[in-house]
Design goal:
Oligomer: single chain
Strand order of the largest sheet: 1-2-4-3
Strand content: 15-25%
Shape: flat
Largest sheet: 4 strands, mixed
Number of domains: 1
Helix content: 25-40%
Length: 79
């Protein structure tokens, strides 16, 4: 399953909302029978990169349309 377009308003950050949404997406992913999630974000999105790392995501080679895109960083988490 691929996570796309997560965003939290700056004034709502730091309240655990993104982590809670991501956890729910992971639960839904498992319920649908998938074993991992993948996602892409920009290297300059330092808060997003930190969130995904905190939630157990590991950097993987850029995939699909992100292959060769220098500013992209891709992640994967086995559930």
């Amino acid at each position: 399953m691929e996570v796309k377009r997560m965003f939290t308003l700056p004034e709502e950050r730091g309240k655990g909302l993104a982590s809670a949404i991501l956890k729910e997406l992971e639960t839904w992913t498992k319920e649908l029978g998938y074993e991992k999630t993948i996602l892409e974000t920009g290297k300059r999105q330092t808060e997003a990169v930190a969130l995904y790392q905190k939630c157990g995501y590991k950097v993987i080679p850029n995939y699909g349309q992100y292959a060769g895109v220098e500013n992209s960083v891709c992640f994967e988490k086995t559930l």
